[in-house]
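Quick start: read one record
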Amino acid sequence: MTDFPGTRRDFLKALGLGAAAVATSCTMSPGGKKDKGRPNVIIVMTDDQGYGDLGVTGNPIIKTPNIDAMAARSGSMKNFYVHPVCAPTRACLMTGRYNYRTRVIDTWVGRAMMEPEETTIAEILRGAGYATGIFGKWHLGDNHPMRPMNQGFDESLVHRGGGIGQPADPPGGEGKYTDPVLLDNGKPAQFKGYCTDVYFERAAEWVSKCTARKKNFFAYIPTNAPHGPFHDVPEEILERYKKMDLGNDHFPQDKGHPLPEASDQDKRARIFAMITNIDDNMGRLFGKLDELGLTENTIVIFMVDNGPNGRRYVAGMKGSKSHVHEGGIRSPFFVHWPEAIEADQSSDRIAAHIDVLPTILDACGVQKPAGLELDGRSFLPLLKGREVNTPDRMIVIQSHRGDEPVLYHNFAARTQRWKLLNASGFGNETLKGAPKFKLYNMEADPLEQNDLAQERPDMVEAMRRKYEQWFNDVGSTREDNYAPPRIHIGTEHENPVVLTRQDWRHVKGRTWAADSNGHWELFAATSGEYDVRLRFPELEAGAHVTLDMSGRKLAAEVDKGATDCTFESVAVNKGEVRLLATLATGDRTKGPWQVDVFLK
């Protein structure tokens, strides 16, 4: 195993945290009686923080005392899997189903939009009487009907797109982790403070309101940290890490990946500062639960969405973000629930993001909606230490660029003992050449050092066939299974609709480069006249601008220095619409940065 030796409690003592840290937050509710009834639920999922980015998983540098202490008080799943990139993990977490069933294929160009007909954990818990809130990163569709507020969340404070610092940033909020511009229940608003602090503070305020109303709550806090860009991080914490040696001598398995440049150590310092800031907020979160008397009967889950954003300590495992080796797809998974789960209760049974929804429903005593088919299973009995005789299973993780999955391309199939993979690379849309299967006995070889594919062709064949069955099954979930959902315009739910490069269908140039272009696939819910405003960086020369709305073509001339161009009263019929806009200067063309579509 890649775990540290001994128990988490032993590890904390070794760090000098001692019994006081272990006992922190294990309080009774007012009056000395444990809370009964349905638990509250909080899921914290960080972005691009790998398995090894915690003191409790053996990292010798990063300071995470609050999460380490939480881990010592928690149950855990030792072999917990996520996708190697973020949006697929989020789709699986929200639905309890493989992301290929949900139309979430990739992380950009319209491939991270989730099918609105999917049923989310927020929708189920809200239907059972829970208040539901999200605070941070959604990344499953920025527009109606795919926003979190359309998918079961009563309270929604999120950034757009896949991260702050990307083309979906609202005007004035470009790249701002400090004083960010966020969507507050669908409306852009600027906030004061560092983004991670803003999410946790808002979540704490909301939890307090729910408690005052005697309302059970489900809070989802998916941070965008420590995802890049790294220019804007908590300065006080950064200065601490800048004074430290962050070279590879501290990370033995990284010696084959030297980081000689000072800029590389600076990047590490910035990532580590973002992680310690998350840890500080975890401490404040438990402080709020203590203050409200909720600690005993609130389920708090901590996990990450994929491997680390860069090669660094991963407890000896191979791989990082985008890889299907263990370092890219293993997540720490701690479940803090003193009312029902004993500290240090853990299980080595394989589990994954698809299992979180059924586990939470099990814990909350909420029935799965009739007819809803899940891929996941509850692991709550394992966390309660029960002897569970469940059949072995295969969990499949597959992810790569493109519009649809490719058989055998960048996948891992994991049973309790065996792992079959073809590590063909996330960045390619197609599989180049024949698959190169590798087989590992994970019980004997958890660090994937000894490929047994040649010695056990029978196991390779058996797992390959089972993987193929899975591939065909998830790919036949619905008609036109991998077509992206359409963004709706002309509804009362969102007007104007802001279209960004996050969700366009790319047609020219490098995906988000200044000279690239793409179109948006829309659905007009209402026939009528629409104003369409194109927004773009200040033009260095005049341009000829064209707008094509499903064959209805309009044109205009804009002058040097312009930053927008509006086509007024464009007639649009109800139904499917393709919007393509182009700015041409001489023989050079490009698309707009963002587009506002407003039903008059």
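The first helix runs from residue 8 to 14.
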